[in-house]
Design goal:
Length: about 200
């Protein structure tokens, strides 16, 4: 084999290897985009926050806090997250996907926002930017408003309290009617009888 033929053969092999590597890289990126798209679509809420300035220990602490309440935090390349946002129908989120971002995925509408906001109060380097709630892209203000609400269990407790309030009032009304019809204890009726007797005299 001549030197020229050998050179051409080597170049062809390198080209094929390069094409194979490029295909593998593209498939890996598409897999990540699909993963992010699924999280955007299936999570109860998503919070985008910039973590520039947080130490490794602080990021680990944040992850633990979130994980304890079922919230997952992931860090992706912005280009991939941006493609996933557009594919999931949340193109408006793309403008916030700049800089070092962390994405927090919650199972409900408030937990991710609440935990991220609590951590941000103690660690100013964590900046809440935007998110997705109930299928809509929301800004920083809305995320902070959501952070003041309780989690699903807390909201259920508040709801039950509201339901119980009128029931308690109804129970008191029933007791009042029973008392008016003579259902009250004798100790409470005695003063009324004495007063009636005094009035007749």
């Amino acid at each position: 084999m001549s030197a020229r033929a050998f050179f051409i053969c080597v170049c062809d092999n390198e080209k094929k290897e390069g094409e194979g590597m490029n295909k593998t890289v593209l498939e890996a990126k598409q897999s990540v985009v699909s993963e992010i798209q699924g999280k955007f679509s299936n999570s109860g809420s998503t919070v985008v926050a910039e973590y520039r300035g947080l130490t490794v220990a602080e990021v680990s602490e944040l992850r633990r806090n979130l994980r304890a309440e079922g919230v997952e935090m992931k860090v992706y390349k912005n280009t991939l997250a941006s493609r996933a946002a557009e594919a999931a129908g949340y193109g408006e989120l793309q403008e916030y996907l700049t800089g070092p971002n962390a994405l927090a995925f919650g199972s409900d509408e408030t937990t991710a926002a609440r935990l991220m906001a609590q951590f941000a109060k103690k660690h100013k380097a964590l900046i809440l930017k935007a998110g997705i709630v109930e299928g809509k892209v929301v800004d920083q203000k809305t995320i902070k408003e959501l952070s003041s609400l309780p989690n699903r269990e807390g909201m259920l407790s508040m709801f039950l309290s509201v339901l119980n309030a009128p029931i308690s009032s109804f129970a008191r009304a029933v007791n009042a009617v029973a008392e008016a019809r003579g259902g009250a204890p004798a100790a409470e009726e005695t003063p009324k009888e004495e007063t009636a007797a005094e009035a007749a005299a």
